[in-house]
Amino acid sequence: MALKKTLTIAGSDTSGGAGMQADLKTFQEHGTYGMVALTVVVTMDPNGWTHNVTPLPTELLQKQIDTALSTGIDAVKTGMLSTEEIIRIAGEAIAKSGTSNVVIDPVMVCKGDDEVLNPGNTDAMIQHLLPLAAVTTPNLFEAGQLAGTGTPKSIDEMKTAAKKIHELGAKAVVIKGGKALATEKATDLFFDGATFYLLESEKVASTFNHGAGCTFAASVTANLANGLSVKEAVIEAKEFVSAAIAHGWALNDYVGPVMHGAKSRFGAPAVTVTEI
Ligand SMILES: Nc1ncnc2c1ncn2[C@@H]1O[C@H](COP(=O)(O)OP(=O)(O)O)[C@@H](O)[C@H]1O
Ligand SMILES: Cc1ncc(COP(=O)(O)O)c(C=O)c1O
Ligand SMILES: [Mg+2]
Questions:
Q1: Where are the alpha helices (DSSP H) in 70-139?
Q2: Are residues 204 and 144 in contact, defined by beta-carbon separation less than 8 angstroms?
Q3: Does 31 have pLDDT greater than 80?
Q4: Per-residue confidence band for 183, with pLDDT thresholds at 50, 70 and 90
Q5: Which residues form the domain of 107?
Q6: Of the bound ligands, which one is closest to the alpha carbon of residue 211?
Q7: Residues in domain Pyridoxamine kinase/Phosphomethylpyrimidine kinase (predicted)?
Q8: Which residue has its alpha carbon closest to ligand 2 atom 2?
Q9: Phi/psi at 53 (nearest 5 deg)?
Q10: pTM for the whole structure
Q11: Predicted pLDDT of residue 115
Q12: How far is the CA of 107 from the centre of ligand 3 (A)?
């Protein structure tokens, strides 16, 4: 039986919760066939868990992209890209891929890590990636950087940022309020270019949400490969990640990854969708 083919152009999170590890686990849970073009390897200091990001040689990235694209892919997502050159190469790969099922997760920082990646990356993402996006999935900080508005602090400010990001070329935008937004629920804003929707689920008190953003974007990617509409894809992704966060767990004293396979095992919390 042939499966839908999903590609992630992303970094390796050696701790397994985020990055290409989250993407592959999530692709598998959605019944798609996952492939990876690896950009960087993230390792952690065993004492204190400080992140270290090591880019792979770009010739090696290009060879991986050529390999994966030669199979004919049904959807592609980007994750941590880390340098302007990698962002440009990813953009060229997507333009060549032949699919319009393109999810840009504009990863700029790791949760719990203050080191913001090179600001030139934001401009490179705007130039090379946003115009190709069927959906882009910034968190609050990333949305503020892309829109040039500073981090949104309310639903109204999220709407303003989403409009700007849409004007930059992304066909649809999900700004993830997550637990940073001061709302009772875990609230994300979805803008399809015409209508705004709030996607809401119970806010989980736990801090075990490492990899939530990657898992959300990978779910959207697999759903698009499987033929769902963009709106259906983001709603299912919200259910999928809500279940994964509700069952997040402590890997060690430093990090709590989401449980990528929670929805199929335990079901998903309710998600409400409201047009605003
Ligand atoms: N504590 C939480 N409870 C429920 N949902 C959450 C929680 N934290 C994040 N989410 C959801 O997880 C998804 C990823 O969001 P977020 O963690 O902000 O992204 P990122 O990992 O990219 O920073 C979003 O749908 C967000 O609303
Ligand atoms: C390789 C890699 N990609 C992406 C991320 C971003 O993860 P999140 O899903 O928490 O936004 C991380 C964070 O550690 C990472 O290591
Ligand atoms: Mg993220």
A1: 84-97, 120-128
A2: no
A3: yes
A4: confident
A5: 3-273
A6: 2
A7: 13-258
A8: 19
A9: -110, 120
A10: 0.97
A11: 53
A12: 5
The DSSP bridge partners found for residue 136 are 104, 173
pLDDT in tens, 78-124: 999 999 999 999 999 999 999 999 999 999 976 545 455 577 999 99
The helix (H) or strand (E) run that includes residue 167 is helix 155-167
Residue 189 phi, psi dihedral angles, 5° rounding: -105, 125
Which one of 179, 188, 206, 258 would you pick to mutate in the ligand 1 pocket, going by the greatest count of ligand atoms within 8 A of its CB?
A: 179
| CATH number, domain with residue 145 | 3.40.1190.20
Q: Report the atom number in ligand 2 closest to the C-alpha of 215.
A: 9
| Ligand 1 site-directed mutation target among 241, 247, 260, 272, most atoms within 8 Å of CB | 241
Question: Average pLDDT over the chain, rounded to whole?
Answer: 95
Longest dimension (CA), the chain: 48
Domain count, the chain: 1
Give CA–CA dist 181/83, Å, rounded: 29
CA distances from 207 to 13, 140, 159, 197 (A): 18, 17, 27, 26
